[in-house]
Amino acid sequence: MSEEINNRAYRKNVIKEILMDLHNGKSLEEAREKFVAVFDGVAYSEVAAAEAALIADGVPLEEVQRLCDVHAALFKDALPEEEAVLSASDSADRPGHPIHTLRQENRAVGEWIDGWVSPLKEAYTKNGGPQARAALRDALEKLSDIKLHYRRKANLIFPYMEQHGITAPPKVMWGVDDEIRSELSEAIGLVANGDARKAAEAVDAATAKIGEMIFKEENIMMPMILEAFTQQEWKRIADESGEIGYCLIDAPPAFLPSGESPSHALSGEAAVGNIVLPTGALRIDELIGLFNTLPIDVTFVDRNDTVKYFSQGEERIFPRTKAIIGRQVVNCHPPASVHIVEGILTDFKSGKKTHEDFWIQMGGQTVYIRYFAVRDGNGAYLGTLEVTQNIAPIQALTGEKRLVDK
Questions:
Q1: Does domain 274-395 have CATH number 3.30.450.20?
Q2: Thinking of the domain 86-244, which architecture would CATH place it in?
Q3: Rg of the Cα trace of the chain?
Q4: Contact yes or no for 185/202 (Cβ under 8 A)
């Protein structure tokens, strides 16, 4: 029997059965009893594999996402100690390593919730005065910087997880991160509207979910990716993190993989050569400069739905990192909007549509997002071009301008 229990496939199937029991309505205690009867412990990869198997068997991603906190609670006592796993890495606990940065942010978030958000919530529920309401709102606004933490995960950590075959956890985690952002926004709105009771409930729900996410990051995601990612992948993640920003901490120092000198880390020659086009020829540096100077953000997805290029203008609207190159475009969008992306691609490939436009209000900007089907001279589909621009300055134009600014 012990030989069978140690069989990886058998263990995965038992974990999957336990998760399916939860999906079908069994209590956490019933599931825990079944788990303890079979296992002494469980590996991070086994939990991920079981969740992936559920999705493959047709359990909706939203349902696995809904059960995510229950899964974490079920396996919490059986997972290896996080400190022991992380200390086994020779560099993960060094300032500058992306794991160290994520953990520092998690500590800062926990301290901000315990030291500011929770006490201010209690004060607000007791007196509900305008001063207490404003203080709580400000504390929640600052906590909303957690979006930068989640944005770095989505744009830098998740792509490499997918490249290493770890596909289910990013999908589930991204969906929960979106829920946290939404619940924080709802809580801020309720505080602003002066509904103390509902606001307190919303704050409690959001902060509890943040705590669960911190547990999942540090006890499931981090040990898993420490085993999978290479030093050069960590270096690329660290190098591009600053473009997105950090949550409640100062920017960390530069990260150098073990045994690499600063001169080696900064080495590399710019590409040279010419690209001959039907209407002219451009050096590669000219082509790069041209795309990066355009007053728009450009992203190209090829015929196989793989992200192949994006421009790097000075004022980007949406964050892009080099980790998305080679990534399936559906994995670059939150789970809730994947069906929209798939619909656009299907319509472009079939010829039903040649473009699709959206516009949204975001941080004082009117963001115009346009998708175009790219075709060759014979009409064959080559891919999809995304063009994004803040058109608020254009909308504000009036009259005429015929003179050069001095």
A1: yes
A2: Up-down Bundle (1.20)
A3: 24
A4: no
